[in-house]
Amino acid sequence: MCTPLVLHALNALFCTGQRSMHGPRVCILGGGFGGLYTALRLDSLLWPQGSKPQVTLIDRSSRFVFKPLLYELLNGGATQDEVAPPFSQLLAPYSINFIQVSTVPLQTASLSCRTLEDGINCLVDNLVVLDGHLKGPL
């Protein structure tokens, strides 16, 4: 069982009432420590056959930035890929989809997370919001 991870806000479980043929669709907004760990943990858990979730991680950046090592990058003690590896590289061994785009507002009536830049809709059965950049109430 996963322990709950909350960077700023954890949105309640949303269900469309229609399940995908390949397990529930989980959309994680925010690719910081909480979002990345949640995606990796969901993918690594043992699930009954046909119930493993289809995980999609959405973040505005193409890279996961490990901020405690930024000073090492500036001093030449670490490379950019060590401090800020691309999500595509981090997620390559897993069956996690990654979408780089700025998100929202959340549309709970249609139970989808709508993106701003190109109008992509990510239909979900479960939505997790872990965006450390949000200010104020959701």
Describe what this molecule looks like in 3D:
With 138 residues, this protein is of the alpha/beta class. It has a single domain, classed as FAD/NAD(P)-binding domain. Helices cover 20% and strands 23% of the residues. It contains four helices and seven strands. The strands form two sheets. The protein has a four-stranded parallel sheet. A hairpin with a 5-residue loop joins strand 5 and strand 6. It is globular. The two termini are 26 Å apart.
Question: Which SSEs are present, and which pair or pack?
Answer:
Layout lengths: L24 E5 L3 H12 L9 E6 L10 H6 L4 H4 L3 H5 L4 E5 L2 E5 L4 E4 L5 E3 L2 E4 L9
Parallel strand pairs: 1-2, 1-7, 2-3
Antiparallel strand pairs: 4-5, 5-6
Please describe the structure with a list of short key phrases separated by commas or semicolons.
FAD/NAD(P)-binding domain; 138 residues; four-stranded parallel β-sheet; disordered N terminus; 7 strands; three-stranded antiparallel β-sheet; alpha/beta
